[in-house]
Every structure is written in C-alpha cells, then in structure tokens.
TrEMBL record, chain B:
GO molecular function, one term: glycosyltransferase activity
SUPFAM superfamilies the record matches: PRTase-like (SSF53271)
Origin species: Dinghuibacter silviterrae
Listed name of the protein: Pyrimidine operon attenuation protein/uracil phosphoribosyltransferase
Pfam assignment, any one: Pribosyltran
Entry-linked CDD domains: PRTases_typeI (cd06223)
Length: 311, 175
C-alpha cells in the first residue's frame, strides 16, 4: 500500500472531516514515532522552529500531558494556557485571547473547550493550524486515533473487527470520534448502555448497532471500549445511582469470565473504578488501557508533525 | 535525455571494489557497524554488506537501517513520510560506516549524523557513497569511500535504477 504524502486538511478538528487515507497516514506515521519513543534518546528535531500553544479551557490531565510530551519530543516550543487564573476570568473573549497569543508568533493551537464547535470557530478566524483536543460532546479526534492504533496493534487490522462502545454514549466525544473513525475504516460498531445515555437517533444516523444489555455487547465484540460516566455533563440524573449502574452496566471480571472467548478492554480514562469498570478488569492482561496512553503520545506526535508542514 | 554512468557490469565491479576497500586496512569487524540510509541508500547498502559478508565468512557483520525523516531541516517546505529504522545493536564507541547511494547536497548526511547521535556516541563515522556529485554540495561533507565521482549541474538528476542494475544521469528540471 502506498500512502499519500500529506493530510487533506490544515486542521485536525474532528475525525468526521478526515478521509480514510488521512487516518491511514496518521496511524502509520504514529507507528514510526512509537519506534522513536523506544530509543534511548526519545526526542527528534522535526519541529524545532515551531511554536505551539496548548489552550485548555477545560480540565484535563492525560490529554494535556500527552500533547505536551509529544510537542517536547518533537522539539517544538510550547506555551501552556489554562482558563482558570487567566484573563478569561476578567471577561476576555475566546477570539481576543487567541489573537493575543498569536501575536506572540504561535504556529499551532491545541485546544480543549467545553463548548462543541469552539475549535471550528477558531479555525475560521485565525491562520494557525488547530488541533482539537476535545470540544464539548462533539469530538476528541486524537483519542479516536490512539484508540484505533491500539486496536490495530492488538488485532492486526481495523477492517471487519467488532467494537462495542459501552457506557455514556450521549455525553461522549470519545464515542463520536470512535464511531466516525471505525466506520470509515470498515469496522463494525455497537453501542451499549442505559437507554437514557444512548441518543435515540444513533442507529439511523451512524449505522451502529444498539443494545441495552452489556453482556450482549461483550458476547458480540472483539474489543470493548468502556466509557466514563460523565456526571459533570448531566444536568439531571439519567440513572438511579452509581451502585446500580455498576450492577446493571459495569464491566466486571464475572461478566468476562462468562464469555466463551477473550476480548480486549479499553477505556479512555480517567476510570471511575467500580462504576463502569472493575479494577480486576482494568488491570488485567486483556486491558489495553496503558497501551492507549503510550500510543497517545505517538499519535499526537504524528498529528503535530503532519500538520506542521501545512503552514 | 539520459546517459548511463554505470552499466550493470560496472555497477557490480564498483560494489565489489568498495567492499574490498572497506575491509582493507585491518578492519576490526567487531568494532565496526554498517548503516544504510533509508530509503534509497538501502538497496546499495544491502549489496555492499552482502559483499563484505562474502569477504569475511564466519564473522558477524552488524548492519542497520537508518531513517532520517524526522531529522530533516525542511519540515516547513513539505512533509516527508518516514521509513523504518532498525538498529538493533549499540553504536557506542564503534566505527560507523554510513552508506548512501548518491551524495548530492550533503543535507541527508547531515541529518543522518544528527540522527546517529540519538543512538549513541560512535568513535568515528565514515561515509560510503556510490555516486558523488561533487560540485553540488551545500554542506562541508565528503565521502571517505566513493564508487564514482561525477560533475553534474543542478538541473540534472542521478538515479540508481536497481531494476536495471545501472546508474543513469537524466537531463531536465528537478534535481
């Protein structure tokens, strides 16, 4: 297979805007960066003259650290911005904040925002390349890509594999990016969870299977991507209690032992241990969770590297 | 218009000669490693190392492949896709023989020297090139072992056509 030389887009706003070739290019470049991360010196000078600002309007630990590490491994200069403690609290608008930062000659913006579409808005107004690090309940493209890389490494391919996304689909940008990506790459997708956390239109809109019993999803799939219950995004309770959620929809060792096959378990983190995922599953040999974190740095290096040439 | 610089017989002879040169002067194979530069230097390096192995039967010749994509200095001018790097031995304190097919501006070798630093600190690095385009250099880099030196202008291209086992000088834009 011959890969094309560059991405079809200047920004990474979501998986929806990427082509299958874009995804293949990012994943294959990420695999080469993964090799770099195994070396004694884990740094390359590719982005030596590129300045990147990490603009985080919403809390994040692993995504922010992962992007920061990816930038440092590529030798880029980085600025970190968090909304709390900044002039945002004095009433400065998003566009003003970004324009001020860009005046300091920044080439790329990595942005997380609680409002869906915030990076798309910026992309229309500023010249820098924008990487969406999660916008509201819309998309989290680098998470989708690193999930895909982890699945590809575990199963050898994405074509035809069966992936069950389990839990809070309604509020999950990870679910959206995973669905877009997996469907584009020829995988089969099923979503499972409480009816109140699964959008009613999802089957017609995205061509994914829907079940409301976690056991059924586990019996069907090769990989179970278990999502976090996002209590902070629920304006009213959508299930009775965490305890009951765990009993009805949690992925437990007992459930997995009841299957007639082995499946891989993934979780984008942070895990609510004992709620959506039990500890003995999260830490088991079939868990890809730590590989996901490791792949995150390589995937983000690939995205930043491939977008840097588009300036 | 194209002109053959090395025909199949000359190419074969050149590779044999280079292998002899590399193994002369009491080469300590335990202290020497051979590294081909991705992607186009590899086919040449494969042949040179193959010859060296024939000249030194029973001895372990260490051979790796180095990709320099992430060490290039022109990322802003366009993205280059990476190739595989496989160096599964230490280069610390060793003599490294870098092998590439065509030495042109010297920028590839500059990147390779940079990349090598990330794998360790070699005692010495030498360069073996099949073709040296000697009047096109942009950096002060010269080969230690050279198959053929040619004088060419920027608009010409030198292509090693492995499918026909020959080296050809093409006229036309785009060096």
């Amino acid at each position: 297979m011959r890969l094309k030389m560059q991405l079809s887009t200047k920004h990474l706003l979501g998986i929806r805007a990427l082509t299958r070739e874009d995804i293949e290019l990012i994943l294959s470049t990420a695999e080469q960066f993964k090799d770099v991360l195994q070396r004694p010196v884990k740094k390359v000078p590719s982005l030596r003259d590129v300045t990147i600002v990490n603009l985080f309007y919403e809390n994040s630990t692993r995504t922010r650290i992962s992007f920061e590490l990816a930038e440092k491994r590529l030798s880029a200069d980085t600025i970190n911005f968090t909304a709390s403690g900044s002039s945002v609290s004095k009433g400065e608008t998003l566009l003003d904040t970004v324009n001020n930062i860009l005046s300091m000659k920044v080439d790329m913006v990595v942005m997380r925002h609680s409002a869906s579409g915030a990076p798309h808005f910026l992309a229309q107004h500023i010249p820098a390349a924008i990487v969406n690090a999660g916008d509201g309940i819309n998309e989290h493209p680098t998470q989708g890509l690193l999930d895909a890389l982890s699945m590809k490494q575990a199963l050898g391919t994405l074509e035809g594999i069966r992936v069950a996304i389990i839990g809070d689909i309604m509020h999950s940008r990870v679910a959206m990016s995973n669905i877009y990506l997996l469907k584009k790459m020829g995988a089969e997708v099923m979503v499972a969870g409480p009816p109140t956390l699964i959008p009613p239109y999802i089957q017609e809109a995205f061509g994914v299977k829907v079940v409301y019993k976690v056991r059924e999803a586990l019996e069907w799939c090769d990989v179970a991507n278990v999502l976090r219950i996002q209590l902070e995004r629920q304006s009213q309770p959508l299930f009775s209690s965490l305890r009951e959620y765990n009993l009805a929809y949690g992925v437990s060792r007992r459930l997995l032992d009841g299957l007639k096959k082995d499946i891989f378990i993934m979780h984008p983190g942070p895990i609510n241990r004992g709620v959506e995922l039990d500890s003995d599953v999260a830490d088991s040999g079939h868990s890809l969770i730590l590989q996901q974190v490791e792949n995150g740095v390589a995937v983000r290096m690939a995205v930043l590297y491939l977008l840097a040439g588009k300036n | 218009m194209a002109r053959i610089i090395l025909d199949p017989d000359q190419l074969k002879l050149t590779i044999q000669r280079l292998a002899h040169q590399l193994t002369e002067d009491g080469l300590d194979v335990k202290q020497t490693v051979f590294i081909g530069i991705q992607p186009r230097g590899i086919k040449f390096a494969d042949r040179v190392v193959d010859q060296i192995r024939k000249l030194l039967p029973g001895q372990k010749v260490q051979y790796g492949k180095l990709d320099i994509t992430f060490y290039r200095d022109d990322v802003r001018d366009g993205i280059h896709l990476p190739n595989q790097t496989s160096i599964d031995f230490s280069i610390e304190g060793k003599t490294v023989i870098l092998i590439d097919d065509v030495l042109y501006t010297g920028r590839t070798i500059r990147s390779a020297l940079d990349a090598l630093q990330d794998f360790g600190r070699p005692a010495r690095v030498a360069l073996c090139a099949l073709i040296d385009r000697r009047f096109s250099r942009e950096l002060p880099i010269q080969p230690d072992f050279c198959g053929k030196t040619i004088d060419s202008i920027v608009s010409q291209r030198v292509i090693v056509e492995w499918e026909h086992e020959r080296v050809v000088l093409h006229e036309g834009a785009g060096a």
